[in-house]
Amino acid sequence: MAVEYTFDHFQKEYPELASNYIKLIDAQRSLKGLDKKTRQLINIGIQTANGSTLGVSYHAQMARKAGATRDEVLGAVVLNLHVRGVGRVLDMLPAAIEGFSRK
Fold it and tell me: Can you list the domains of the chain with their CATH numbers?
């Protein structure tokens, strides 16, 4: 049986570490130079390269909320074609579609 790991589990098990992690994320968000949508699209590309379906799904949802289109989100996944190969892209596209569709 597969267990889905979520950030809620991390916060419950390691509240102080999770709190500090959130502070790091907040500090990154305050950096100037990239808008929210661009940061999320970059994160999708990174998570695709890392093979994280959970990360791709989460950042696809965040990208949509930041104004990204479906084509932009899926394009961020497909950009990994020459880096990680067609298998990785095929593995990550469903997560991107699911995350983009989530409300």
Answer: 33-101 (1.20.1290.10)
